[in-house]
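Running this now, will post back.
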Amino acid sequence: MAIPPVPARQLFIDGEWREPILKNRIPIVNPSTQDVIGHIPAATKEDVEVAVNAARRAFSRNKGKDWAKAPGALRAKYLRAIAAKVTERKSHLAKLESLDSGKPLDETVWDMEDVAGCFEFYADLAEGLDAKQKAPVSLPMESFKSYVLKQPIGVVGLITPWNYPLLMAVWKVAPSLAAGCTAVLKPSELASVTCLELADICREVGLPPGVLNVLTGYGSEAGAPLAAHPSVDKIAFTGSFATGSKVMTAAAQLVKPVSMELGGKSPLIVFDDVDLDKAAEWALFGCFWTNGQICSATSRLLVHESIASEFIEKLVKWSKNIKISDPLEEGCRLGPVVSEGQYEKILKFISTAKSEGATILHGGSRPEHLKKGFFIEPTIITDVTTSMQIWREEVFGPVLCVKTFSSEDEAIELANDSHYGLGAAVISNDAERCDRVSQDFEAGIVWINCSQPCFTQAPWGGIKRSGFGRELGEWGLDNYLSVKQVTLYTSNDPWGWYKPPC
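Update: finished.
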């Protein structure tokens, strides 16, 4: 397969490519080969200032009539044009995503289809937004009428992760633009290439200058000043709990609204009435999809004790059959993790688990046939206690921990014993049991007889330390709208509270 060159891009500000003010750049490392394959611009606070000012001008241009107060149909036209260009460039974008992040090509192709679908979905919602304006509010007094306006929040800062570089950026970009906001996008420095390609698409379709600005760079140099900027009206963040806490602290100084998706340590409960092979595949997919780098990964597997031995055998057999390779190779199902730092961090987690008494049943190291790249075998760990680091902390790699349970109540207690609450899954042929368990899970997303499916139409987000707010669906649009109450006094009679003057 021909490997596309990585385009040399600058920062995208006010509809133009601009060199960073300090002229710094960051190397792009292919995680499969560890080779430097290009560079991205490194924005700093000086560039953030320029980008935010551009977004502010775009929001208020022509008293808002060019974008923020324009008909939803106008914004929808641009979103659909972007979707069409993403579809046109799908193959190229998917290859760039694989080169940059290490995700298998079949996954990145799927991601690009979802990117286009996300823009299309929010184009429809943008069109429908106008018809929902002035929704009446029922009041108990006949002399008053009230209605609600939904208006764009303003300039939004969007800080996004590297595991779904373009898709998770678009989860924020598409609804924020549909709502009428203008945006500054700061993707992760570990995988930014396709976000710069999105900027090129926006330029090509003629998106008004300043509506979307894309700043690549380090979190401390670009993300932090964006979160703290007084002219940014809201921050939407996806990433780690530690970084999210810093973003919230910065936003709190100005009482700036935030929405947070901060990862998790999600459970998957497998009961004793299941087809073992079907359940085993879902268990592995739920943890090893996207090279194990999923915020919602069901990495805590709870198996009924009566089937545990046979089920774990199945897991190992299925794991041995997973093709680990360069992500551009046909049939690849597990590529490298994104960076050397992540690679070392995951191996340290595995080493600590072993030193704490857990058993590394399968995997746990570099595959023998791959001498270069940040590859880690799919790893299955047993003999785990609930106090172990590997059970309690997010690994963000292809590492599955297995524990047994004897009753439904015990399974729920173990599943909910976590600081996180993003996703949770249950596999059972008993529909009533699945309904009970889904209601008892402390999580924002529940899967029944599957793990990880995600649809643009359905809400996405967590509770506890997994964050707050919801992306996707109509809830994703609401993230970027403020609600304004308008109340009219309709009577011809004076109010009559004060005695009139003589």
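The chain has two domains: 11-23+33-262+466-486, 267-448. More later if anyone needs it.
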